[in-house]
Design a protein that fits this description.
CATH architecture: 2-Layer Sandwich
Structural class: alpha+beta
CATH superfamily: 7,8-Dihydro-6-hydroxymethylpterin-pyrophosphokinase HPPK
Order of helices and strands: EHEEEHEEEHEEHE
CATH topology: Alpha-Beta Plaits
Largest sheet: 6 strands, antiparallel
Helix content: 10-25%
Amino acid sequence: MQHRFRHLPGASLAYVGIGSNLAHPRRHVARAVAEMARLPRTRVVAVSPNYLSAPLGATAPQPDYVNAVAALVTSLAAPALLKRMRTIEYRHGRPPAKQRVRNAARTLDLDLLLFGRRRSRQRQLTLPHPRMHQRAFVLRPLLDIAPAAVIPGRGAARRWLRGLHGQRIARTRRHTRL
């Protein structure tokens, strides 16, 4: 995939996890991809199929999630991309971080999973995403668009997926109308 973004100066390949389980989840996922495609100095170069997955760590019953992963080529810095992703979440009705309940149902969740081969631990951003290797709903769609994906500091994503057979995940359809 790297050959597709040589024409973006200083570009990095980023992978974004997308999830929704409220208010027409497939529609939120599709619209989020379209909105990321409109970000400055950014191109969406691949999007996985959608998957249905059971909520993890939920303290109350909630609907299944629709999840996908998008590959972006961007010359935005990782913190700037994350800030734009948060703006997209807010437009979809996600409350600000201070008002969120961890693992609660949501209209849209965008997670910056990988940003090139960068590893960093900052207050607002940890790369790679610190729990991505524990989530089938991240790894399965990631491997659909990047079969040789490597999680910096952890190794091949495929190896981690093998240990997550207990997590329910099934391919589902896309929302075709935005």
